[in-house]
């Protein structure tokens, strides 16, 4: 029996994907990012509003992080202050390790066209992760249904209730939205243009 799992960060993209795809399970990962508590709270509220099962995985990788998401100085390899080395690879792998035991066969990720300035936000990265995971036991597939649309296009097309997106948290610097980071500004811009 097919089972889909959504990597739910609590941001606009994954919340919209939860609304459009109604996965069997949503999973939020606390890997040591400074905004983990807010992401867990937002994800829990979103899953609850949609009547979806929600699980939290906690693995402390804070000492491996860099940039504002780790509360540390950034490194020159990334193109943004929040860049955390191999973060998407880490999070996808952690979720896959958990859900493959359930027999899940699809892992949905809320990646969008806006994310493609990072190598691990590009369609090619997700194709490689899909190839790697599906090659291994369990044949878990990675899907990015919104990869060809911007957040604004995706949210406008899906038209989730404003009350659902009101729970989202996008700040990469803090559990309380700073209003200054790229993610906070993007969230505000998208919500203002659509609602």
From TrEMBL:
Membrane-spanning ranges: none
InterPro entries reported for this sequence: QueC, Rossmann-like_a/b/a_fold
Pfam families named in the record: QueC
Pathway: Purine metabolism; 7-cyano-7-deazaguanine biosynthesis
Family membership noted in the UniProt record: Belongs to the QueC family.
EC number: 6.3.4.20
GO molecular function: ATP binding; ligase activity; metal ion binding
Substrates-to-products reaction catalysed: 7-carboxy-7-carbaguanine + NH4(+) + 2 ATP = 7-cyano-7-carbaguanine + 2 AMP + 2 diphosphate + 2 H(+)
Function per UniProt: Catalyzes the ATP-dependent conversion of 7-carboxy-7-deazaguanine (CDG) to 7-cyano-7-deazaguanine (preQ(0)).
PANTHER family: 7-CYANO-7-DEAZAGUANINE SYNTHASE
Domain of life assignment: Archaea
Keywords on record: ATP-binding, Ligase, Metal-binding, Nucleotide-binding, Zinc
The protein, known as: 7-cyano-7-deazaguanine synthase
Species whose genome carries this gene: Halobium salinum
Top EC group: ligase
SUPFAM superfamilies: Adenine nucleotide alpha hydrolases-like
């Amino acid at each position: 029996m097919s089972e889909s799992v959504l990597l739910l960060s609590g941001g606009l993209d994954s919340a919209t994907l939860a609304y459009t795809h109604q996965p069997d399970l949503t999973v939020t990962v606390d890997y040591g990012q400074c905004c983990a508590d807010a992401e867990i709270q937002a994800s829990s509220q979103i899953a609850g509003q949609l009547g979806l099962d929600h699980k939290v995985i906690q693995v402390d990788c804070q000492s491996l992080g860099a940039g504002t998401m780790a509360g540390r100085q950034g490194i020159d390899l990334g193109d943004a202050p929040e860049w955390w080395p191999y973060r998407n690879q880490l999070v996808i792998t952690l979720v896959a390790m958990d859900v493959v035991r359930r027999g899940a066969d699809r892992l949905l990720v809320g990646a969008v066209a806006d994310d493609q300035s990072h190598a691990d936000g590009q369609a090619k990265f997700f194709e490689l992760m899909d190839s790697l995971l599906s090659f291994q036991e369990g044949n878990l597939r990675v899907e990015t249904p919104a990869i060809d649309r911007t957040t604004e296009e995706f949210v406008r097309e899906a038209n989730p209730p404003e009350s659902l997106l009101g729970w989202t948290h996008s700040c990469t610097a803090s559990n309380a939205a700073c209003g200054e980071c790229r993610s906070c500004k993007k969230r505000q811009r998208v919500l203002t243009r659509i609602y």
